[in-house]
Inverse folding.
């Protein structure tokens, strides 16, 4: 991984379509993509040939945003269709997705690797034929029991968890200039560093108590 790696041409946010899933943990990738589109002044429109909502960042640019509308386990259908049409190589793709192995408030940027049991990544790898694309993992925490995972990811996070996830996404969006320029090394250093916990407020200085009035004899 070097600063000379190619800049991204396709940003993919993973999630499930439909209003019933909009606020669920599994849609953290959509949240990032929507935030990035807002920051860049891009507008999504549904493209049936790409099986999802697509935005081109400025007319004539080589950067695309994609939110597949195929449900999570068929995300690769949308990614593969757009990547093949515009001849985008795997290492020019950045996929943003929720991650059970990271707590809310943490994220990890990496190139390649396994799916970690994430069905969206499994399908993308199958359609691209290689795992060598970039991933930004947004921590959502783990329910503790594998049997509870499906129900957990398809539910909205608790209020404090949601605040931590959104704060993480804000930090990732702030690092967009590094990602956009292909400076993956500096972006990785920034995004993979855990934020320092806030310092506890200093206690107010003690106010000396006034001396009690002496009784007159």
């Amino acid at each position: 991984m070097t600063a000379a790696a190619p800049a991204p041409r396709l940003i993919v946010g993973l999630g499930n379509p439909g209003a019933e899933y909009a606020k669920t943990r599994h849609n953290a990738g959509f949240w990032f993509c929507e935030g990035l589109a807002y920051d860049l002044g891009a507008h999504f429109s549904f493209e049936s040939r790409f099986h999802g909502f697509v935005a081109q960042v400025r007319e004539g640019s080589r950067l695309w945003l994609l939110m597949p509308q195929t449900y999570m386990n068929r995300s690769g259908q949308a990614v593969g269709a757009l990547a093949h049409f515009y001849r985008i190589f795997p290492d020019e793709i950045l996929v943003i997705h929720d991650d059970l192995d990271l707590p809310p408030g943490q994220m990890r940027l990496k190139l390649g690797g396994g799916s970690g049991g994430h069905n969206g990544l499994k399908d993308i790898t199958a359609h691209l034929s290689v795992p060598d694309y970039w991933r930004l993992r947004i921590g959502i925490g783990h329910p503790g029991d594998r049997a509870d995972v499906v129900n957990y990811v398809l539910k909205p996070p608790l209020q404090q968890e949601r605040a931590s996830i959104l704060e993480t996404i804000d930090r990732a969006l702030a690092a967009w200039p590094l990602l956009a320029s292909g400076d993956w090394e500096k972006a990785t250093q920034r995004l993979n560093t855990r934020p320092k916990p806030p310092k506890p407020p200093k206690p107010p200085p003690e106010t000396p108590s006034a001396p009690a009035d002496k009784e007159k004899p």
In short: The beta strands are 10-13, 45-47, 52-56, 64-68, 93-99, 107-111, 134-139. DSSP finds seven helices and seven strands in the chain.
